[in-house]
Amino acid sequence: MPRRHRGVAPVGGAGGLMLPFARVTLIGLGLIGSSLARAVRATMPTVRLTGYDADPAVRETAVRIELVDDVADSAGTAAIDADLVILCVPVGAIGPAAAELADDLPADAVVSDVGSCKAAVARALAEALPGRAIVPAHPVAGTEQSGPEAGFATLFHGRWCILTPEAGTDATAVERVAEFWRRLGATPEVMTPEHHDRVLAVTSHLPHLIAYTIVGTASDLEEVTRGEVIKYSAGGFRDFTRIAASDPTMWRDVFLTNREAVLEMLGRFSEDLASLQRAIRWGKGDELFDLFTRTRAIRRSIVEQGQDDPAADFGRSHE
Ligand SMILES: NC(=O)C1=CN([C@@H]2O[C@H](COP(=O)(O)OP(=O)(O)OC[C@H]3O[C@@H](n4cnc5c(N)ncnc54)[C@H](O)[C@@H]3O)[C@@H](O)[C@H]2O)C=CC1
Ligand SMILES: O=C(O)C(=O)Cc1ccc(O)cc1
């Protein structure tokens, strides 16, 4: 088991020439499932890829665009000879999808997922697949698009992939999943599911909630017409509209699943917002200036570290 430090630990890079897995099954062929299929094809072309999606139209598209070697017509059939099964479905569907294939899963298969929340998902996976090797994962990479045609092979390049195995999970299974993500261009890191959920509540879930709110509020304002919202949506607001175009099912599930951490961070955010409101009301320019100086420095250090989000540019350049 990789060492844990304050809930976070890098995963040692054993590397090697052997493929970590030879037969990979993807359950859910939307943005992330189809990006995984394309990335596996590009980086591990001898891997046999099988896919399944609950939506017949998605299965049809997957066949038409030759996304995987085989599109199965049930989750169980897709899993039957896999050595890695990755659940790429909305977080609320991960437990049910795992239960659906449990009886057909080979004894030595490793099961993973890509869900944006980890604590509740890890519990659902452990319950659906008792005694199995489970290595939950979250690639911190995506866009506001969804569906099988939105994916692309380079989505995971230069991005983190957070692994949240339970203490006591077979170390070889963890290392094989870590190596799988390294081959796709991502950097794996291990942390506890609880730590993951608190960090992502601030860095991803809260920003999405704010974007959904601000776009909703702007379009509800009586003195601003919907036409004006579109016409004058240059600058900051435009960036919010990209995020607020993210998949409704996926994000409903994220907020209902990571409820506690999101509510905690939202409480903290509301307090900070109220203090900004006071600073504006009482003309405290120094307070505003100090905060904006601090946040500008944060943005600059993110850009310097080369962690600016390519997904943002991807979204914009394809509009
Ligand atoms: N969209 C993003 O930017 C990112 C998403 N994620 C996570 O990846 C997962 C998938 O998200 P996307 O690919 O964006 O969504 P998507 O909406 O593009 O694809 C999800 C697919 O799962 C299928 N599905 C739903 N329930 C199913 C079931 N029970 N069995 C089989 N297929 C089922 C749907 O028909 C759909 O095709 C989610 O858990 C999300 O939290 C993680 C990182 C980034
Ligand atoms: O499109 C964006 O800006 C994102 O933030 C993509 C994203 C969405 C959900 C995740 O769990 C990880 C990445």
Description:
- Its EC number is 1.3.1.12.
- GO terms for molecular function: NAD+ binding; prephenate dehydrogenase (NAD+) activity; prephenate dehydrogenase (NADP+) activity.
- With 319 residues, the protein is of the alpha/beta class.
- It has 2 domains: 8-191, 3-Layer(aba) Sandwich (Rossmann fold); 196-282, 6-phosphogluconate dehydrogenase C-terminal like domain (6-phosphogluconate dehydrogenase C-terminal fold, Orthogonal Bundle), CATH 1.10.3660.10.
- 51% of the residues lie in helices and 12% in strands.
- It has 13 helices and 10 strands.
- It has a 6-stranded parallel beta sheet, sandwiched between helices. It has a 4-stranded mixed beta sheet with strand order 1-10-9-8.
- Helix 2 (56-64) links the parallel strand 3 (48-52) and strand 4 (70-71).
- Helix 7 (193-220) crosses helix 9 (236-243) and helix 7 packs across helix 11.
- The longest helix is centred in the middle third of the chain and has 28 residues, at 193-220.
- The protein starts with 7 loop residues before the first strand and ends with a helix.
- 1,4-dihydronicotinamide adenine dinucleotide (NAI) binds next to helix 1, helix 4 and helix 10.
